[in-house]
Amino acid sequence: MEKVDEEKRYKIEKIDSGVKNAVFYQAAKTAMYIGLFAAASTVTNVLTKDYDMNLMSKYSPMYEQVIGCILYATSLISVAGITKGLLGLMDLCFFGAGVKKLKKEHKEPVSFKELGFDSDPVTEYRESIQSVILNGFSDEDEETISEGETKKR
Amino acid sequence: MKVKDLVTLSDENKYVVVQKIDYEGKTYYYLVDIEKNENIKFGYQDNDEFVEVTDSSLLEKLIPIFGKQAIEIIKEYKDDLK
User: How many whole angstroms separate alpha carbon A110 and alpha carbon A95?
Assistant: First the structure.
C-alpha cells in the first residue's frame, strides 16, 4: 500500500462528556468488528505470505465469507457466551441456506424482512468493515449535517 | 479528550471517543461517527486539533490493538443494556 504523507487535521470544535451507554455500545461494536477483521486479515496475510491490497480485494469475497462468519461468531461468543455465539453462527449458516433456497424457488431477490429479520446483519457488518479496511482507510464518505444542529465553540 | 466524550470536529460530524491507547509514546484515539458508524477516525490530539493517522503501516498496528480492547468494553457494557 502507498503511504499517504499528507496529514489530515481537524479542528476540535467542541467536546461534550458522557454519551448514552447505548450510543457508546453501538460505536464500540463497530470498533470491535473492524479491529477483529483487521487482525484476521493480518493473520491471513501471514499465511498467504503475500501482502497486497489488490490481492486482498480480489479474494476478499471468499475471505469475507469465512472470516466474517468466524469473526461474527467470535464476537458473539466473547460478548454473549459460547451458546449464543454458536447459535449466531448457525443463524448465519441457516440464513444463507434459506436465502439460497428461497431465491431458487422465487427466482427473485429475497429481502431479510421477508425472511423475518428486522435488519440485515451480514450486509451491515460487511459494509461497516469493507468501506474502511478494503478501500484503504480513505475518508471519502459523504458527510451530512443534521438539521437544526448549531455549532458551538 | 477521554473515552465516552462526544467530539465535534471541523468536518461538522460528531464522534464518540470509543477508545484510547498508548503506543510508542503517543496516545491514539479511536473515533466513531455517531450517525454513520462506518465513518471512523484514528489519530491523536495536537492541542486543539485532531490529527488523523494516514500511514497504513501504523494503522495496521493500531487497529488490531483497538479491536481487542473493544471486546473488553463491550463485555463491560452489555450488562448495563439488559
Answer: 11
Residues 43-62 of B with CB under 8 A from A: 43, 45-46, 48-52, 54-57, 59-60
Dihedral (CA of A59, A60, A61, A63) sign = positive
Q: What is the pTM of this model?
A: 0.51
Strand extents, DSSP E, chain B = 6-9, 14-23, 26-33, 40-46, 49-52
ipTM for the complex shown: 0.84
Mean pLDDT in each 10-residue stretch from start to end of chain B (82 residues)?
Answer: 90 88 91 76 91 79 72 62 46
User: E strands, chain A, where?
Assistant: 8-16
Contact (CB<8Å) A31/B40: yes
For A32-72, what is each residue's pLDDT tens digit?
666 555 555 554 444 343 333 444 444 444 444 555 555 55
Using CA of residue A96, residue A102, residue A108, residue A111, what is the dihedral sign? negative
- Give the residue carrying C-alpha cell 429481502: A111
- φ, ψ of residue A52 in degrees (nearest 5): -155, 120
Residues of A in Cβ contact (< 8 Å) with B81: 21-22, 25
Residue indicated by cell numbers 463491560:
B76
